[in-house]
Description:
7 helices, two-stranded antiparallel ribbon
Amino acid sequence: MSNAVDLDIGKFLDQLYDVYREIDAAYAEAAEYYGFSCEGCEQNCCDTVFYHYTLIEFFGLLDGFDALPEDIQARSLQRAREYVKELNRFRGKEQNVKILCPLNYDGLCSVYEHRPLICRIHGLPGSFRHPAKGIKTFSGCKRFEETNKMEKTKVIERTAFYTRIATLESQVRREMDYLMKFQKTIAEMLLDRNLV
Ligand code: SF4
């Protein structure tokens, strides 16, 4: 089996970052429509436990992590260990726990350009057309739901983004001959980097 070291991941990451740019543009357009901003928000969504499901986003995140200064990397890994220790007490009921992402410093994401899809898109209403299960809709974040007075006529259509990331994921998995399920928090991605 080839691994992440053998794989020429750059060509896939370039495509992932193109998708990220398009997500950011769609998000900015919707945010402008609603007059919505995260600025000054005290409900930091970086303390919500989210799982991430793709190797390609895992490699994208590590690409950003590797560019951080060494002392921040070391501190983040220590925070990641504490995060997982705390999370282990709440497995299966993650919605009941708030733990700050180990890559968030003073309210800011230290890997902002490399943050995964869900970190980019979470705040505003969205929809996704699943090929088998039909249309799934997403509400905005807590702040959006509390402050927005407008009808939710502007919805970020996630289908094309998910589809393109899924296509990249299949290509990466095929090249790596990787068949296992991937489901990790950001903290677990940092700690498990050598297990893939
Ligand atoms: S990766 Fe960045 S945006 Fe996502 S939860 Fe962590 S700090 Fe927040």
